[in-house]
Amino acid sequence: MAVGRCTHSLDIGDVVVVKRYTSWGRGEPRREWEALTLLAEHAPDLAPTPVEAALDAHPPMIVMSRLPGCVLRGQHATGEQVQAMAAALHRLHQIPFDVVADVEPAPWGPAAAVTKARAWARKQPDLGDDPLVREAFRAGTAWLASTAPDQLVTNPLPPVLGLADGNRANYLWDDHERCVRLIDWEDSGRSDRAFELGEVCEHISHIDGSLDADWLVPHIDLAPGEAERVLGFRRLIALGWFLQLGPGGPATPHNPAGTLERQAKRILQLFS
């Protein structure tokens, strides 16, 4: 759940993209290179093809193929695009479990999300006087204080390779091939599928354009009991953003006016 963090610069050519990292304290270049290499073998054409890497350079650098298309962030996604997004996630999550087991855990996951949301709730952030916002805060903090978030931390299902970043700018729609591909793998790693879906549904990028999460989830073939976990993670991720949207919150400067009130309505819908 990075807020306003710029970690790289891009040199976009006709055929390849050169990505140079401006920060790499969490191993971002290595994570991205390993993910792209794994994807090229097990899910070709789902992500950029790795071409060259200088992981020990200063700054580190990766060269990858340039993919056609436009990002879904800011778009009013059609039913076809939502189905294509679900198909892309299905392909990603079909990478064999024994392969994923050898991947390093993603730095952003269930335990980190629970800890961060509770830490923000304890700060009692200034969210203003709007009655709807206050109602959402009460509902959300009561849930955070319960045992429900803790039950999300243990994954009863096999892990998946995940982006660990639900920003819809990471989903690229190819209008010619009528498919979605995934970009920006610097935070990737072994993850929980229900958490990944919660991230996709509730990342704050949903305020740009429209991509109805309630359209997306039914296109995913969920295991028994997984739908409840997806809802739990949707609540958790949505709350994490909500708690950072007060007047002095770190997420506020990056979002348009009225985002806090819109997010409050979303919280109340998720808890209805």
UniProtKB/TrEMBL annotation:
InterPro entries named among the record's database cross-references: AGP_Transferase, Aminoglycoside_PTrfase, Kinase-like_dom_sf
Species, as recorded: Nonomuraea turkmeniaca
Protein's name in the database: Aminoglycoside phosphotransferase family protein
Gene3D superfamilies linked: 3.90.1200.10
Pfam families registered for this protein in UniProt: APH
Domain Aminoglycoside phosphotransferase, chain residue ranges per copy: 24-208
Alphabetized UniProt keyword annotations: Transferase
GO molecular function: transferase activity
